[in-house]
Amino acid sequence: MAKRERGTLSRAEIVRVAMEVAEAEGSDALTFRRLGPALGVAPTAVLRHFRDKDELLLAIGAQLLENALAEVDHDEPSWRERIMSLSRATRRAFVAHPRVAALVATRTLRQEAEFRTVELIIGAMEQAGLSGRAAASMYRVVADTVLAWTAFEANVHAVGLDVMRQDGLAWDREYVVLPADRYPHIRGVAEHLSEVDREDQFELALELVLDAVEARGTAAGHLLDGGANGASGDECQPDTLDIAVNCER
Amino acid sequence: MAKRERGTLSRAEIVRVAMEVAEAEGSDALTFRRLGPALGVAPTAVLRHFRDKDELLLAIGAQLLENALAEVDHDEPSWRERIMSLSRATRRAFVAHPRVAALVATRTLRQEAEFRTVELIIGAMEQAGLSGRAAASMYRVVADTVLAWTAFEANVHAVGLDVMRQDGLAWDREYVVLPADRYPHIRGVAEHLSEVDREDQFELALELVLDAVEARGTAAGHLLDGGANGASGDECQPDTLDIAVNCER
DNA sequence: ACCTGAACACCGTTCAAGT
DNA sequence: ACCTGAACACCGTTCAAGT
């Protein structure tokens, strides 16, 4: 070995090469033993910069989130556009590196990139008219919706483009030949099942959540303006399941 | 070894014990080498019943889905209630075995339990008034919403109850001490961030999607038979996205 | 301080051999 | 037909030793 000068290995370079290795050879290939040679270094040298493999994975997750945040226009005046921009950027950043994304998308990162993302979303919630508990609650719905869908999609893409295409065909193949007496509903729409665009669903699911934010924010605004009456006023019961309503005491 | 008569090992028993081992010792412990002794058998004996580890994982996923389907009342007349029932049952079944659930929730199973689930959801979409491409599209939004949230939640639970509680505290600890000048919005609601109930968010996210299904189904019904649609109430306006309105009768 | 190389305690999977 | 045990090609992580 000995192909590289001492002190030239950095966390940033390790993260970069780790992502390359995982995308090129499959996420199973992301091992210290392969990563070392790819960096021109002994496999165990990486452990001088990351305590264990988990710490490396979290750093990769942070990098993906950094990539997403870099694309967001933080001066966009509309809170709704800011959230959509962040969501689309996150989706793009994760799908651009599906194999590593699948490994980290459901992790809690607790790094600076995560703090900044939380800050951005909560700021948007407050601009929408929510505050306190309602803002915290809706932040979580928005964040988890983006993360859950992103993780799901990353997992789908991580299996590889060829397998994915084959999976799409499987909807045509396997589902079309299911016995019609036992699966009449599937047979009725089987031909359409493979046509569905996943990006459209992501957007739709998000729009629905943001509609809810908007409705609740406006209602809360009315309350502040003096209107103690209205649909939302009666819903502020301590035992109600409708957590999104602003029940500030 | 030799603790067990020949021919008494079955796929069902392997799946059952595998789930026990994973929940008791952590999902990392789900290896053939530990599974064998737990079954009173050589580690490689399991390979006589499952081609490889992936096939075992898919069988575990199918079992989880079977558990969920067994709880659903298939004769429930309201399509909306059937979907909610299926969704809650899926959530319960997966959270009841979080460690194995985390391993399989994002997989495509392509087994009988999955076919039956697809059939149930598409049937509900058609009863809601959707058909063809719209039914297929909305099926995917509903199914992916349930799967994505379930997978996400399973991953959260899989880290262990103690770590989870510590994570909850982390919201109090780490987020409360963030510098207020850089993260003013976080500081404003930090005290509420740890109070959010995840089950409520799951329900809310689902209700939002089902509202969309209902709105589209009613609209389609109006187009088809000029206004009267038995499956949905007339008081549900198709263009109303105000999710505070519940169209359930 | 940073890196190496051997060692330790594990993996999944294959395969000839047993019953 | 079903199961065993050895073997093969891998893992992450530790640690004494080098520079």
UniProtKB/TrEMBL annotation, chains A, B:
UniProt DNA-binding residue ranges: 31-50
Record-linked PANTHER family: HTH-TYPE TRANSCRIPTIONAL REGULATOR RUTR, TRANSCRIPTIONAL REGULATORY PROTEIN
Species in which this protein is naturally found: Actinoplanes palleronii
UniProt keyword annotations, A-Z: DNA-binding, Transcription, Transcription regulation
Domain HTH tetR-type: from-to ranges: 8-68
Official protein name in the record: HTH tetR-type domain-containing protein
InterPro entries per record: Homeodomain-like_sf, HTH-type_TetR-like_transc_reg, HTH_TetR, Repressor_TetR_C, Tet_transcr_reg_TetR-rel_C_sf
